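FW: tagging you since you asked about this chain on Friday. Here's the raw sequence from the shared folder, copied in full. Didn't touch anything.
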Amino acid sequence: MGYLCLEELQVKQALGQSFVCRSKAGTAVFTETGEPLDLLKWLAQVETVSECRVLLGAQARLPVRVIAFRLSEASVSRARRRLREYARKQGKQPTQARLALTPWLVVTNVPEELLSAQEVGVLARVRWQVEIVFRVWTSCFRVDECRSRHVWRVLCALYAKLMGVVLWHWLVLVWRGGVWERGLYKAARAFQRLSVVLAVCWRCGWGFGALLALFESCLATWRVGKRRERPATFQLILESEGLT
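HL: got it, structure written out here
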């Protein structure tokens, strides 16, 4: 999983490793016979989901599957706004070709008999959940911040925060039904509000069992609602596994 880097993908391919990553604008794409492929022309024919086998890179010619997912008009508009905003911060203007590549392009070397196009799309979306984990660690639990400038105090504070995050994350993962329907960011924000109450209750002599019961009572507020138009990642995973 990750962003497209031909050199790294070549190494993974040589080691027999699998990868799923987002396509990168400007990368040369060729048909299996070595003819240049007009991605825009091919994408114009995509209705919902389509894929083709290509060679990636002008020099690398890496054999992969390119899978295109047609986005809704609302999603296309959001994607273009994000792209323009990112380009503005970099002092640039997005090219028309980049704006035209609005279908979601995913590159993988996993054979079709192991992962269908739809399953690749679900797997690619899971990567964002990894980003959410790091966002929770930094923005909610602030593991990257410390008021002290003494190296050993900074190290102790870092380890203490990481131990607390691991404990909290483990409770969210395994407590009463698992993590499927629980949003980590929502859970972290709720736990921040609850932490003061837990600390006061602990100082007032509450036992560990009572604190866990209070923690459990708050789990219901951390759920991610099921959506029809834009299903959440956990819904797509459960559906792909036939568990819905």
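FW: The chain has a mean pLDDT of 79.
HL: agreed, and The first strand starts at residue 2 and ends at 3.
FW: great, closing this out.
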